[in-house]
Amino acid sequence: MPIGLDGLGIALLVRELKDLLKGRLIQSIRLSEDNVLTIALGEPGPRYLRFLVEPPFPLVALGGDPGIRRQKQGPPAMPRFEDPLTDQPISTVEQIDLDRVIKMTVGDRQDEQFHLYFELIPPHPNLFLTGADGTIKATLFKAGTQTRKRILTRGKQYTPPLPQDKADPFKVGMEDLESLPWREDDEVLSKSFHGIGPFLSKEIVSRAGHSGSLGNAFREVIEAHRKGEIKPAVSTVSPEVTRTPPWIGATWYESCAPWVGKQAPVSSLNEAVSRAINEFTVTSALERGRAVVARSVARDIKKWRKAEKEAEKAETDKETGDRLRKFGEIIVANLKSIKKGLTEVRLPDIFSEEGEDITIPLKPHLSPHANAEAYFKKSRKALRRANLAHGSLTAARTELKRLRALLKELTSEEIAEKRIEEMKKMFASGGPAGKPAGPVDEKAERLGIKPRRYVVTDGWAVLVGRSAKENDILTHRYATPGDLWFHAGQAQGSHVVLKRGRKKTQVSKQAISEAAAIAAHFSKARTSKHVPVSYTEKRYVKKVRKGAPGLCIMLREKVVFVEPALPKR
Q1: Three-state secondary-structure class, residue 104
Q2: What pLDDT is attached to residue 384?
């Protein structure tokens, strides 16, 4: 992400905003399609307070340019948010506990005041309006309802982000600083102290690399912050650091980090942040979207290349399988000449045109016939792995071809913004590249589960839980009473639900067998040839009182024996 502000940077910004905003009247509030919330203010001074609500790069600054290109269409919940604030003066601006939260109080009379909480915490920036008593009146922007284990809803008491278990950077001793493993981890300061983000930690460690002392580099930065001796600038940053355009950052210090490029000094930190917001708004949504999709494509190409190499390696199992089968055939042809108890035997190779002998290892505790069966069994397993590897190799190469074509299309100058949005949704849904995303299951999304999905004979949908917690939700909150529920007998495994709902159509034996095979596949009995799978309607599945997640009992059940397998769809 671009370089945003950490707690120390926000503390400096709030110092500037206090004087710039005190007494200013709020005239209007608008949200643009560029994800910039603009609060228009009365004169004198800069007219617009802007809140960039982009999840990876939240910023707040005061400036003269509203930076709005297009207003969001439709009836947003603005009136409830804006009406209490219109024509009201801003009385105070403060920071909450050196965190990335700015509290702005609006109104003259204490009993009629409102509070705006700007939470600049990537990737969950939020903006809440509360009354004088701290009750949430409205939410204008909410990227994360459970930021740091909080649940914030209208009508509830606002609580700031829970404090992290970190030390105060203004009270740390030199010995404690020098004991930190900063040479191995350049983000150790952000993990140890309040108000210090990863970028500032890297900056201090970079300075310590030149001086040889983390304590001196840390003290130098903290003292400059304490005295307000700052050097605000807008910097360019390498794409490897920012990932998505614009490749910029707003800093309150002169950076010496190797990944920071050109630095443009400005008169104040507010101006630096305002320019960073301007750069973000002028960078087209198409370019930002292109960078997001390109990163997803690169990630998937890396994944499928790994799968391709693993499949190529597994294809060698065919040679192993043929060799093991050959051993078994030779043993069978010479059963009478082999005695039990031998660790190896040298026999004529019946597959050799020249009639050469071959040495075959044996298990002394097995009979000659049992040794042959053991080789045949190992051969079947190796050949099965080789066949699966062949299918995986074909799939990997097909997917790589599709991804490379997608990457070529993405870099084309003629690509439309609509097509990039389609690609973003495609990757966000987890669907395969080049194919449209499947239908959205709103109930599953609402419950926070992402079960595996398959289609069996006659088009029945089958869902498989991925964990004990998801099994519990899938069975007791997602499935309806008429759905069929499957579980491998006498073995741990996933809960499997065949979505039948209220349909009166009977599920065929073939569909039941395929769903049962899926349940057997996602159990600890998946290596067995025949697995007993119990099934019943979900109405007969009850949760064990005070039992662990996923633990339940069936009041009625039927059993079918199947071989573990997955359907083609």
Answers
A1: strand
A2: 77
pTM to 2 decimal places: 0.56
- DSSP string covering 342-378, please? -SEEEEE-TT-TT--EEEEE--TTS-HHHHHHHHHHH
* 191 contacts: CB under 8 Å, gap ≥ 6: 166, 185, 201
Beta bridge partners of 532: 561
Kindly report the number of other CB atoms within 10 A of residue 274's CB atom.
25
Range 499-527 average pLDDT: 88
Calculate the average pLDDT of the chain: 84
The pairing of beta strand 101-106 with beta strand 90-95: antiparallel
Place of tokens 């399988």: 321
Asked if residue 422 has pLDDT above 70, the reply is yes
DSSP 517-543: HHHHHTBTTTTSSSEEEEEEEGGGEEE
Question: What number of other Cβ atoms are within 10 A of residue 411's Cβ?
Answer: 10
The topology under which CATH files domain 7-142 is ibrinogen binding protein from staphylococcus aureus fold (2.30.310)
Instruction: For residue 238, count CB atoms less than 10 angstroms from its CB and return exposed for 0-12, middle for 13-18, buried for 19 or more.
Output: exposed
Q: For residue range 20-36, what is the model confidence (pLDDT) as tens digits?
A: 999 999 988 887 766 78
pLDDT of residue 283: 75
Residues forming a β-bridge with 167: 193
Beta bridge partners of 301: none
- 108-136 pLDDT, tens digit per residue, is 887 789 999 999 988 778 888 999 999 98
| Closest of 102, 81, 122 to residue 20, by C-alpha | 102
Report CA Rg, the chain: 32
Q: Residue 142: helix, strand or coil by DSSP?
A: strand
DSSP for residue 99: S
**Mean pLDDT, to the nearest integer, of 524-530?**
87
Find the helix packing angle between 368-410 and 417-428, rounded to 10°: 150
Q: In terms of Cα–Cα distance, which of 117, 62, 109 is closest to 88?
A: 109
Name the residue with tokens 């150790």: 188
pLDDT tops 60 at residue 317: yes
Taking CB atoms within 8 Å and a gap of at least 24, the contacts of 222-231 are 222/169, 222/170, 224/253, 225/8, 225/11, 225/12, 225/252, 226/170, 228/12, 228/15, 230/12, 230/269, 231/265
Domain layout of the chain by residue ranges: 7-142, 174-283, 443-562
Contact call for residues 91 and 105 (beta carbons, < 8 A):
yes
User: Tokens 């050097």 correspond to what residue?
Assistant: 231
Classify residue 134 by its DSSP letter: -
245, 285 Cβ separation under 8 angstroms: no
